[in-house]
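REQUEST
  id: r-88c1
  op: predict_structure
  target: Tautomerase family protein
  payload:
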Amino acid sequence: MIVIYGIGSQLKPKTSVLSNTIHRCMQQVLGLPEDKRAHRFVHLAEEDFYYPGGRSSAYTVIEINMMAGRTVDTQKTLIKTLFREIERDLGLAPIDVEIVIKEQAPHQWGFRGMTGDEARDLNYKINV
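RESPONSE
  id: r-88c1
  status: 200
  body:
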């Protein structure tokens, strides 16, 4: 699951393109299938979103929650690919994008009535 935060007036017009860009990067780097898009956009009021100095009101935070198993190189490739593709597709400068990957053990995921370590029918690899 991916959660994207930003000021609503900045983020809302970009939601569809940003979702498509993020998912394309997830497919390219992690091998996720087309139907594994799970994005949540949080459109915040300007007064509710504090961000670091030197950033514009377009500052966007992308939290990627995934099961542990991807290598450091794979994770770094994903982050760098996201920066590059987001800048290309949306004109959003890397200084205005923050990406964090949060990994949890498979047993800490619950979906379809089971935990992640019990799932035997995933159509993508975790250990890449």
